[in-house]
Design a protein that fits this description.
The structure holds two protein chains of two kinds. Chain A has one domain: Methanol Dehydrogenase, Chain A. Chain A is 7% helix and 37% strand. In chain B, strands 1, 2, 3, 4, 5 and 10 form a six-stranded antiparallel sheet that branches. In chain B, strands 6-7-8-9 form a four-stranded antiparallel sheet, with no helix packed on it. Chain B folds into two domains: 49 residues, no CATH class; 133 residues, Rieske [2Fe-2S] iron-sulphur domain (Rieske Iron-sulfur Protein), CATH 2.102.10. The chains are: A mainly beta, B alpha+beta.
């Protein structure tokens, strides 16, 4: 106690001196406001939103770093975040200022050229927070503000120049299982976010807030309530705890003014307690960005029993097929199928779907609607164990795919040869607690014999031809988000051996690799300052990648050590 | 105090905002928390926690008994007889028997009670157990999830969030997964057949604040 008391004046003096110091970021970099026009047509040098452009491509036209010289790519500077767990957020860059986020909702503003820190925001999270997914997937920019969706279900606007909180809006009550991990989507002066908590019996929604004031503008539930279209796909009261989380940022078609969101699985996992299609679970939904009205949807699969959240928003691109060119929605599903849909102002139509990993649940797809039929042996129940492929983590989960308009290829970070088994149990809902209908000890990962050779893949698909162009295989499972560039390159980490790699976008040939501090589960980005192109990515293994590694280790009777702790890596060509 | 100086230097570089600092100065409790961040001893945790005045949020107190918070016995008093020997564990909240105050005002008060064979316990664990019943915080020190999984063959407690695994036979030490430390231990005794609190949690309850 004496020690404590003696320290108290010191603590107070410290705080007072900090308070009295000028609140300037002392930034050598002037800040350029982000306008609606800049979001629609970002400069080649910048990376202003989650996937750089609204269409979700994860593509930059920058080509200084290219197939000919990428072998000389080398670290330019690094930055240690001081935080463990999954570092999944992209370095967002606006005219020389970089923003990254880390688990625990830390935001860092850095000089994107020198690596000098400009400001740091650290959130004091509630001590009784239940963090199933200790991560954050990035910020959004608009005007002179930085928007952050927090793991205790708040939406914050920070001053981009200082990191000060401009407004703080409670989106939901974290004590009832709601949280947020996604980077917000900004369109037409509104900030859109969606909630997670599907394992805790939430009722999902997407909500828009006024970017200037933080005032709520609209709110659309992903589980329809009484009187709403689709409500009858939920028996009894099940809609109240129907889950359908929103995990990842939506894409946006400015011509149609529609925001496309991928939706999570229905809750609980145990499908027999919620017989029905369970709209809008495992779907893409198209929301009017001004009103939140659901204008169209396509459900990839109904009455899910495999935890196959279709978390990723579809990529928006044009596809040419014989006799037909159309505006497509492309989605590499957690259910292991690559979905090709056509988007319209008032509907989404099915074009085709092909399995891109081994899938043994769907017996056929309706050729008109794409609705799958199921093998009943692959559906678990109370006391009934069922094995199914792909695993709970699916063919591809949250790490985003990328599209390169030069090659016309879609690049999918996939996992093959991994299956799961579940056994159900009756469960009663308690607010804020896990509500899955599955006991933890009854969740299994079942690697196929081929998994010893490889699990992770990077696949390139020629969407016009409707076939796979090439595959790169990795011994490790793969959690790597994909970046592709005008330099004819594809960048991805994701494996448990800590490498970050570059591939030839045309052939898949590996051209460069860098071993990092930890496993790379961050979204890579690229930008250019003063004529120098940089590649940036966070390395910090954790969350689902860590969890699946534990399951794999258990299945194989081994222990794999992957160090944690986040570091931002920034690369440039060696001079 | 080298750690404190390092922290100060780091904070200065970070250009913290004035608003944050203002709000921090307002609350005495947050100042205490800041001091904690400066590496001051764990004594602060007990001060901060004892500053809690809401009896429903108070950590378990000596003499408290328990009510099952889930399962077939939900709402009933936990006794030696209704805890199955060998597991699985039961979730419970402490109850002040004098005032009948159930301390469920914070989920950090959730306790895991496991009835194990006395011979299976390590000596230090047996010393704080009550006839084979051991008590631990149900909150994982990794990211704060409920440790609700049970591996019957090894008698291990497992957190379903990130598979942190604890051995309740040996002070809930970490035997797998990312948890940075053991589950805080709650000393128990049996009084009138009821499982009863015999001491304070051995460590701060909840996730790491780093």
């Amino acid at each position: 106690m004496n020690q404590v008391i003696r320290l108290m004046p010191f603590v107070l003096m410290t705080l007072v001196s900090l308070l009295s110091s000028p609140v300037t970021a002392q930034s050598p970099v002037p800040y350029t406001p982000v306008t609606a026009e800049r979001l629609l047509q970002p400069e080649a040098d910048n990376w202003l939103m989650y996937r750089r452009t609204y269409d979700g491509w994860g593509y930059s036209p920058l080509d200084q770093i290219n197939t000919k010289n990428v072998a000389t790519l080398a670290p330019s500077w690094t930055f240690s975040t001081g935080v463990e767990e999954g570092h999944q957020s992209p370095p967002i860059v606006n005219n020389g200022v970089m923003f990254i986020t880390t688990p625990k909702n830390q935001v860092l503003a850095l000089d994107a050229k020198s690596g000098e820190i400009l400001w740091r925001y650290r959130r004091e999270l509630p001590e009784d927070l239940f963090q199933l997914h200790p991560t954050n997937r990035g910020i959004a920019l608009y005007g002179d503000k930085v928007f952050l969706a927090t793991v205790d279900a708040h939406l914050l606007a920070l001053n981009a120049k200082t990191g000060e909180v401009v407004w703080d809006q409670t989106v939901e009550n974290y004590l009832t299982g709601y949280y947020m991990t996604l980077a917000p989507l900004v369109a037409r002066g509104k900030v859109m976010v969606g909630v997670s908590g599907g394992e805790l019996g939430i009722r999902g929604f997407i909500q828009a807030f006024d970017a200037e004031t933080g005032k709520p503008v609209w709110k659309t539930h992903t589980v329809p309530g009484p009187g709403e279209k689709g409500h009858d796909t939920w028996p009894g009261e099940t809609w109240k705890t129907g889950a359908v989380s929103i995990w990842v940022t939506g894409t946006y078609d400015p011509q149609l003014n529609l925001a496309y969101w991928g939706t999570g699985n229905p809750g609980p996992f145990l499908s027999e307690v919620r017989r029905g299609d369970n709209l809008y679970a495992n779907s893409v939904i198209a929301l009017d960005a001004d009103t939140g009205e659901i204008k169209a949807h396509h459900q990839y699969h109904w009455n899910d029993a495999w935890d196959w959240d279709e978390v990723s928003a579809p990529l928006l691109l044009d596809v040419k097929r014989p006799g037909k060119s159309f505006k497509a929605l492309v989605h590499a599903g957690r259910n292991g199928y690559l979905w090709l849909l056509e988007r319209h102002a008032d509907k989404i139509t099915f074009v085709d779907a092909t399995p891109f990993v081994h899938q043994n649940v769907f017996t056929k797809l309706d050729p008109e609607t794409g609705r799958p039929s199921y093998d009943p042996q692959r559906i678990f129940g109370v006391g009934k164990r069922a094995e199914f492929c792909p695993s709970l983590s699916g063919g591809k989960t949250w790490p985003p795919a990328a599209y390169n308009p030069q090659t016309g290829y879609l690049y999918i970070p996939a996992n093959e040869n991994l299956c799961s088994a579940l056994t159900g149990k009756q469960e009663t809902y308690t607010a804020g607690q896990l509500y899955m209908g599955v006991d933890f000890s009854d969740i299994e990962f079942v690697p196929r014999p081929e998994a010893k050779q490889h699990i992770g893949e990077l696949q390139a698909w020629d969407l016009n031809a409707g076939k796979k162009a090439w595959t790169v295989k990795f011994k490790s499972h793969n959690w790597g988000p994909v970046l592709t560039t005008g330099g004819g390159l594809v960048f991805m980490g994701g494996t448990n051996d800590r490498y970050f790699r570059a591939f030839d976008a045309k052939t898949g040939k590996q051209l460069w690799q860098q071993r990092t501090n930890s496993g790379v589960v961050g979204v890579p980005t690229t930008y250019q300052i003063d004529g120098v192109q940089y590649i940036a990515v966070q390395s910090g293994w954790g969350v689902d990648a860590q969890r699946v590694q534990e399951f794999l280790d258990k299945a194989w009777g081994v222990k794999t050590f992957i160090p944690q702790g986040g570091v931002l890596w920034v690369f440039a060509l060696r001079k | 105090m080298p750690r404190a100086e390092n922290q100060l230097e780091e904070s200065t570089n970070a250009h913290p905002c004035a608003e944050c600092c203002t709000s921090r100065l307002v609350s005495r409790r947050t100042v205490l928390k800041s001091a904690l961040g400066l590496g001051v001893s764990l004594h602060f945790a007990s001060i901060a926690e004892s500053a809690e005045t809401d009896p429903k949020k108070l950590r378990p107190q000596i003499g408290d008994i328990f009510l099952f918070s889930a399962g077939a016995h939900q709402g009933q008093v936990v006794t030696l007889n209704n805890l199955p020997e060998g597991g699985p564990p039961a979730f419970a909240y402490p109850l002040d028997p004098k005032t009948q105050t159930l301390r469920d005002g914070s989920r950090l008060n959730r306790v895991l009670l496991v009835h194990l064979a006395q011979a299976a316990l390590t000596d230090p664990t047996r010393a704080v157990a009550a006839e084979g019943v051991v008590g631990y915080s149900a909150i994982c020190p990794h990211t704060g999830c409920d440790v609700s999984g049970w591996q019957a063959d090894t008698q291990h407690l497992i957190c379903p969030c990130h598979t942190s695994t604890f051995d309740p036979k040996d002070r809930a030490r970490v035997v797998g997964g990312p948890a940075p430390r053991s589950l805080p231990l709650l000393p128990l005794q049996i009084a009138d057949g009821k499982v009863t609190v015999a001491g304070a949690f051995s460590a701060r309850v909840g996730a790491e604040q780093k």
